[in-house]
Amino acid sequence: MRLTGFLIFVSGKVLKAVILLAALSVLSFWLVSKSPIDPVQSYIGADAMVVGPEQRENIAAYWGLDRPPLERLYSWGAALLQGDFGTSMIFRRPVLTVIGERFMASLMLMGLAWIISGLLGFWLGITAAMKQGSWLDRLIKTYCFTLASTPTFWLGLLLLIVFAVWLGWFPIGLAVPAGGLAEEVTLAERLRHLILPALTLSILGVANVALHTRQKLIDVLNSEYVLLARARGATEREVLFRHGLRNIALPAVTLQFASLSELFGGSVLAEQVFSYPGLGQATVQAGLRGDVPLLLGIVIFSAMFVFSGNLIADIIYRLVDPRIRQGEASG
Amino acid sequence: MSKSGISYLAAGSKEVRLFKGMNLRTKTLISIGLTVVLLMLIIAGNFTLSADNISTNFEIKNQPPSAVNLFGTDWLGRDMFTRTVKGLNISLAVGMIASFVSAVIALVLGISAATLGKRVDGLVTWLIDLFLGVPHLVIIILIAFAMGGGIRGVIVGVAVTHWPSLARVIRAEVMQLRSADYIQVAQKLGKSRWWIATKHLLPHLAPQFFIGLILLFPHAILHEAGISFLGFGLSPETPAIGIILSESMRYLSTGMWWLAFFPGLALLVMVRSFDILGSNLLLLFDPHRARE
Amino acid sequence: MSMPGEVSGVKTEPMLSVRELSVSFIQYARGLKQQLLEVINGLSIELYPGEVVAVVGSSGSGKSLLAHAVLGILPGNAIVSGDMQFGGEILTSKRQSTLRGTEIAFVPQSVNYLDPLMKVGAQVKAAVKQGSKREVQQKIFKRYHLDKNVENLYPFQLSGGMARRILVAGALVGNARLVIADEPTPGLHPAVVKETLHHLRELSDEGRAVMLITHDIKAALEYADRIAVFYAGTTLETANVADFSGDGSDLRHPYSKALWKALPQNDFVSLPGFQPASGELPQGCLFAPRCHMFKDLCKEKRPKERSLRGGKVRCHYAT
Question: Would you kindly state where each structural domain of chain A is located, as residue ranges?
Answer without folding.
Answer: 2-81, 95-321
